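Example record

The entry below shows one chain as it appears in the dataset: sequence first, then structure tokens.
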Amino acid sequence: MPGIPGIALWYHEAMNPTHTSKQQIDREAIPSLYLHVPFCASICYYCDFARQIYRRETVDAWLKAIQTELESVQPSHSLETIYIGGGTPSSLSEDQLETLLCLLDSYRTETKEYTVELNPETVSEEKLNCLKRHGVNRLSIGIQSGDEALLARMNRKHTKADIHRLVVQINACGFSNISMDLIYGLPNETMKQVEADLNYVLDLKPTHLSLYSLSIEPGSVFGKQGVQPIDEDLEAEMYESIVRRLLQEGYEHYEVSNFARPGKQSIHNRNVWQYKDFIGIGYGAWGKEGNVRYDHAGSLQAYLKNPCYREKVLLSDLERQFETLMMGLRLSEGVFLKQYQEQFGCLPADTFPVSIAKGIRRGYLEEEKDMLRCTGQGMELLNSILVEFMEEAEV
């Protein structure tokens, strides 16, 4: 899941609330669970998520900690969605993957969407069969590029041959809901390379695509190397080209960076963008339950010693209003104003009148049929729009 926590944590750091809560939550009502696997066979140069190189003995200890946390949290046994992300879940050995999925079996009896992230070079036919046995019905593949030079620049360890082998194996195993990730805006990347990557991934016929502009994070290798982002105008041109092409190919542009065939939008990610509660399990995961947001702070070693510890933040009504807009405006349909008013007793324009009026006047926002949404141009500028909302909230 990656792409989703980033912007929320960015806001969290900006507001910097420090108080905690002991609020009791009915977890039977929480529809989604995210479990973070913080292990990788190698470290990608753009990544700043919680991750470390795979070591068998560390993963064995981590699995015991995951079991302890799950027993403590007691998620609903009728979860709508489960999402295992990372890191690289497929970096686990076959027996370790089996152990992890067994721990989640009792929570998936009514699950509609069960997603696991994969990297092509770490997947075997045995691992795919394991996923299938345990009810996984959606795979998210980190392709990132079909250009061997760009893959090497990112320190990705798979090749195009690995990708094609994996696609053949996936089809043979009977998986039909396949998401693929691509990154654009890499150092010295050209429009021609972006177009070639789109052609390449479209030939693989995914049902869902996530396309992210490269973000240079301070803790990533790129950040430490001093890599600079590409020109903003070129990045915008790449984004607009991607949107046009995928719409022509029949994909729905349902979220800023996500595209899907009809009926194949990510249920789990939509739940998060609609600001529904979800449980976060494991070091590197975060979650939201009621008016509490939490993460598993510190190091992996700290998590192994105390897997039930969570660092919690109690959200004010103003913070929750902002975050509802921050998440909801990522979606093409936007924010349902009636639901917003029922939840907060006011409309967005009551709390953020200047920012909303300015956004509508500039053509970045629009209100229609009980919805507040971004226009196409507004989606490109969403981070700037949100900064204005945040600044107004601080006045």
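Notes for this example: Confidence is low (pLDDT under 50) at residues 1-23. The longest helix spans residues 56-73.
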